[in-house]
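thread: overnight batch results

M.L. [08:02]
morning all. the overnight job finished for the chain we discussed friday. pasting input first so we're all looking at the same thing
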Amino acid sequence: MTAHYRRLDVRELHRAGVLVPGWRGGWNWYRNGQKRASVNIEVGDASIQLRYRATDRGEWKDYDYTVRLSRSSCHYGGERPWFLCPCCGRRVAILYGGAMFACRVCYGLAYEAQREDETDRLARRADAIRDRLGWEAGILNPDEWKPKGMHWRTFWRLKAEHDRLKGGALGAWAKRLGILDSTGR
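M.L. [08:03]
and the structure it wrote out:
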């Protein structure tokens, strides 16, 4: 899954002002406030140079290679940068780091949502509504009340949708665990 790989997102680099020819520096990844990995980047006119150390089958190796950049025009002016995958040449926004940074197709990765079954999807959608309502995540947690500033009509609509999704997920889990049979008893 893509969540298990370090992401190098061309949009983040662009917003941070990194993709200016001549720029040199490091890009870091953090977990729980601690630096977990970094890559040195040197930007050229139509490419970036990546330099880093990583383990490959338990052995440390140094990597130094070029990733070409492409640009597309935006409808209201300006340009949008893209990576060209070093393995297949596809135009992508995100490269995933393993021994080499490559697109998700080259690594055979799927997004988390692509691996969900219907029950997980119902629970995730219910959790998204809980987030919008400012409630604690997790459909097993108690429901709270209307957030300040939200219209009552919006609240009742979201609560009804949340309750429908929650009921569907809990019912499917109960069937899976053998608590309910296929008739719902």
